[in-house]
Amino acid sequence: MFLLLSRTVSLSVVHRVTCSCPSTPSKAILVSSVLIKLARKICVSHSSASGQNTGTMPERRPFVRLPTDVYPVNYGLCLKPDLIDFTFEGKLEALVEVTQSTNQIVMNCADIDIITASFAPEGGDEINATGFNYQNEDEKVTLSFPTALQKGSGMLKIDFVGELNDKMKGFYRSKYTTPAGEVRYAAVTQFEATDARRAFPCWDEPAIKATFDITLIVPKDRVALSNMNVIDKKPYPEDENLVEVKFAPTPIMSTYLVAFVIGEYHHVESQSSDGVTVRVYTPVGKAEQGKFALEVATKTLPFYKDYFSVPYPLPKIDLIAIADFAAGAMENWGLVTYRETALLIDPKNSCSSSKQWVALVVGHELAHQWFGNLVTMEWWTHLWLNEGFASWIEYLCVDHCFPEYDIWTQFVSADYTRALDLDALDSSHPIEVDVGHPSEVDEIFDAISYSKGASVIRMLHNYIGDEDFRKGMNAYLLKFQHKNASTEDLWSCLEQASGKPIAAVMGSWTKQMGFPIIAVDEEQVSDDRVLKISQKKFCASGLHDGEDCPSWMVPISICTSNDPTCTKLKLLLEKPETSVTVRGVGPDQWIKVNPGTVGFYRIQYSSSMLKNVLPGIRDLSLQPVDRLGLQNDLFSLLHKQADMQEEKNRIERVLGAIPAPELIQKVLCFRRCSGSSWDGRGCGSPGCWSSHHRF
Ligand code: BES
Ligand code: ZN
């Protein structure tokens, strides 16, 4: 069992204070909190989760989710940050439902000191908690009551204090310099995956949704933002320098999507065609640099509304650049936070790759407003779907809003080829992995969940077709809106809409690591072409052979030189090998598999097929993504197969003959970046797009 750092505070040593919002702890409470912190340091007991002393060596305890006997319906939350002392005072008034009589309430809580806690059943007398037992390892607190809380509604009140930390998680401080050179701090939040519990005691699991009424008490010259619009702003009675800002109630939502920001910002504002107020907040004096993101966001919101056939459910959305920010961006509902380089564009000094990056990040986070925020994953196991889906649809959105970017070519040269390269290594892992303890979440946030996730969803979209895909998405969002869902729920909606075996197909791509190499050979039989197609696991360390070779359900499309952009035949390869006849293909025509480079696999053509397809490369009738895909497959095969050298030379000669220097540049840059240390930060050469990338 773990050595638990636990303590029980006698309520007789702390005082309750009243204030207006609904009531806020005063400095007196802060003093007692310092004493409590000292007490916490001294009072270390060896106890198990059940409170028993063990005295044995620590061992890994299985993770247990929160009990369901008490759950929140509404959080009335008032926070008063101190931007000088880096502390905050908080008051929670949570409307809760007791489903089973109990004299304990277990919640998440980390680095927070509870001052007082009480429970008042509806229409009954308030009962003070007699102890707070912190299970620090589990980031939980158990509030104990002298009598049992009966089934029904009640109000749980907790006064607490915490630190505005410098760890870029929870409620933290972010340093900035004013135009006059003065160093100041903003207070900001980053809650995903499990850091809301550092800002207020809560049920910090994605499936435990509730509404939030948030109030912030802030210096009157600071901007205060939260998920919803401001509904009231009034002077704070106890301090004339402060104001009390009250926000509209949120829809029912998960704790990891709650956010607040208090600081000095300028903003630009617009209205999207579907009536949503969009603002982009920038550092003071840099509002101009928010204009591009504002244009992207106002175009993006109506795109998603139309694509999902579900309107954006909040009246406003703010996008804000935060000076100190750990992730690239975070999709908090109605208040999306970004690191500055992912949001700001200096019109005089930014290159087009920076604009593309901002467009993609904005497209990604706004997609989450539906996929993730409105419908939320049931548990962190399904996070890959949240991120993989947003990482795919961001490209669909940018392609729609800025067709001149030719952004899908970037997808293939960045996400797709990168995912194939990484997933071919023995050190790869399945996209879908069971997450127990939320601390495992960080481990699975890698290029496999993002880039392979996005690539298999792109393949799925192509397999289903846009119309049925949208139908299924709409059914999924309507069925699970304001609720939680799992990966299987999405597959079943898409299965219903398309009549195709989506769960079985997708399971083969998400539950096992790696991907196949598809070998293709052809034979001319009068006016038809007969293709022999087989699959084997592709490994960077050599082909996987033998009995236990995994296999995939592989959607395959085929095109011919008649129209290289149009699929002539589709099939689903469900076994190790098959034959298929492509009718009406004369001996002078060539055949290419995987037009658009959408299937997540590599292709090994027979020598003669490869030779035949060369004119399609030379005369540019094959799209750039197809030429890139062919070349990339050949490069990867070269690692193990020396006899492919001849094919590689041929392709390189042909690519060298293409009057498209930017494509060659892209291919060379890709090789440089990915061939070095696999850190994904790009080769550093000017214009290397992947230097903006996420990993
Ligand atoms: N939800 C994530 C950010 C996140 C994930 C924060 C997990 C904490 C834990 C967000 O939607 C995201 O994916 N951000 C990306 C940028 C995006 C454009 C790919 C990031 O931060 O790298
Ligand atoms: Zn995301």
From TrEMBL:
It comes from Nothobranchius furzeri. It catalyses: Release of an N-terminal amino acid, preferentially alanine, from a wide range of peptides, amides and arylamides. It is an enzyme of class 3 (hydrolase). GO terms for molecular function: alanyl aminopeptidase activity; metalloaminopeptidase activity; peptide binding; zinc ion binding. GO terms for cellular component: cytoplasm; extracellular space; membrane. Its cofactor is Zn(2+). Residues 1-19 form the signal peptide. Keywords: Aminopeptidase, Cytoplasm, Hydrolase, Metal-binding, Metalloprotease, Protease, Signal, Zinc. The lineage of its organism: Eukaryota, Metazoa, Chordata, Craniata, Vertebrata. CDD domains: M1_APN-Q_like. Residues 292-509 form the Peptidase M1 membrane alanine aminopeptidase domain. It is found in: Cytoplasm. Zn(2+) binds at residues 364, 368, 387. Residues 72-257 form the Aminopeptidase N-like N-terminal domain. Belongs to the peptidase M1 family. The active site is at 365 (proton acceptor). Its EC number is 3.4.11.14. One of its GO terms (biological process) is peptide catabolic process. This is Puromycin-sensitive aminopeptidase. The keyword Hydrolase applies. It comes from the Eukaryota.
